[in-house]
Amino acid sequence: MSLVAPLPEVVVSRGSVLSTQLLTGPEVDALVVPVAPPAEGDEGVQPRTGTADAAARFGVDLGELADRLEMTGAAGDATTLHLPRSASVERELPWSRLPATVVVVGVGAGTLQDLRRAGAAIARSTRGMRRVVTTVGADAGSDGTRALVEGYLLGAYRHPTRATGKPAKAPAASLVLLGRYTQAAVDAAGLAAMATWTARTLTVTPSDTKNPAWLAERAAELATAAGLTVEVLGPQELAARGFGGLLAVGGGSATGPRLVTVRYEPPAPAPTRNRAGTAAGPARPGSTPRHIVLVGKGITYDTGGISIKPRESMVPMKTDMAGAAVVLATVLGAAAAGVQHRVTALLPLAENAFGGSSYRPGDVLRLYGGTTVEITNTDAEGRIVLADALSHADADLDPDVLIDVATLTGAATLGLGKQHGALYTAEDALACALQDAGDETGELLWRMPLVADYRPVLDSDVADLRHVPVDPHVGGGSITAALFLQRFVGDRRWAHLDIAGPARATAASHELPEGATGFGARLLLRWLTQLR
Ligand code: BES
Ligand code: MN
Ligand code: ZN
Hints:
Elements: E1 10-13, E2 28-36, E3 46-47, H1 51-58, H2 62-68, E4 78-82, E5 101-106, H3 112-126, E6 131-134, H4 141-156, E7 174-178, H5 183-204, H6 212-225, E8 229-233, H7 235-241, H8 244-249, E9 258-264, E10 291-296, E11 298-302, H9 311-314, H10 322-337, E12 342-352, E13 364-366, E14 372-374, H11 382-397, E15 401-406, H12 410-416, E16 420-425, H13 428-441, E17 444-447, E18 465-466, H14 477-486, E19 493-498, E20 504-505, E21 515-516, H15 521-530
Parallel strand pairs: 1-7, 2-5, 2-6, 6-7, 10-12, 10-15, 11-12, 14-18, 15-19, 16-17
Antiparallel strand pairs: 2-3, 4-5, 8-9, 9-12, 13-14, 16-19, 20-21
Helix pairs in contact: 3-4, 4-5, 5-10, 5-15, 10-15, 11-14, 13-15
């Protein structure tokens, strides 16, 4: 059985609610149509594409019914109408040959976020049905289609259950998009959703299963199946190459650390020919192939180590490898999408365990490349394993852009809440591009400052630097963590995403499930797809 469950099917069908044969065919359990909030000065929700046709075909005043049911038309608001069947064969009702269920879904103002939410609402209200037909978003263009289908597929996701490994509850319905939808947008949404499903599934796996060796094996399996090259370094190889940070953080665990490298090479561009018939560079003008290196924090469980966490804070820490899951899902998605750039994902994997061989506060570690670091708090383990991987990327991989993703600090969550990831970069253009990608996928980033004046708080008397300020009054815990990482990226173009907040949700809402959200995979994939 494969690790990640298959996505529900989404197909496009040309035609209209008035004329399509689909609605009288077998297996279609529901028709889903859109409404928007009342126009100014008006009462009553407004029908959107397909809703008036549905009213005509079913012979039911859907607008009047929606108002009586007090529908608002707000994005993600959905009402299921169960149409009665006739009690006698002599008396046919107008809808008797049509699906017995009509779902009316609010699409709000029709923004991408609204359509994503409408899509998730369709998934929620039709779970367990075989096939549903919808016209929601049919007039919203290709970006709208992508958002709607992403919302549908993200809302259809269920975490696997322990006993069976399969998702709980009934599977999501197969979705038919009825109207002028673009197939390319549907395909792109499928790739994006698959990346998120992969990240969620890995992140939610309990840590008695998910130790560094297990996660390295799953990464290798997934990458090999996608035709990518994988390399896994174990403790001995890490020691031989000087990864002193990853070894120290992973030292207290019964399962030693791993460093996984997954490489994607774009297909060689067909060369264009000049008049003399000689090759004249890549076929895509304006697009220079770059090398993007993505680094993801992969702590398979974070007890805090010797600086042990309080009981309550430890409970969610099986998700402390969300960054590694996200960069893995992104490189797999980049391959599936045929991205035009080289993408390398680095996954430093370790369990921050409590034990006799754990590293200690006061230890001085020698990280990859020779920088020494004084440990003041073993619970700040993420920045240590990231520093090893970032140094290696800078020294050996020659990245054009280096991006790390990490559930790094509780401080980021305190400052920004759970809806925004904290974004750090010295480069405005990179900040904008990542933020734009996040706006388009619904994974919001908020840019934070790399305050140069705070750098001295990382000075140490016994090492090149310390990883956490000892003075508790410094504040800015997410900022000082970013400043620490910046010491290991050389002169590279670099961005750091602290996803401690949005990587997990405390309750399901719209396209997010409770627990692991997979935050970041879609925005990175989107950024890579648009990168020129
Ligand atoms: N994995 C945690 C950060 C975290 C906290 C993620 C809450 C998600 C939710 C990280 O390793 C950690 O423990 N950070 C410490 C840093 C401190 C010791 C400087 C923190 O945020 O308290
Ligand atoms: Mn920690
Ligand atoms: Zn951690």
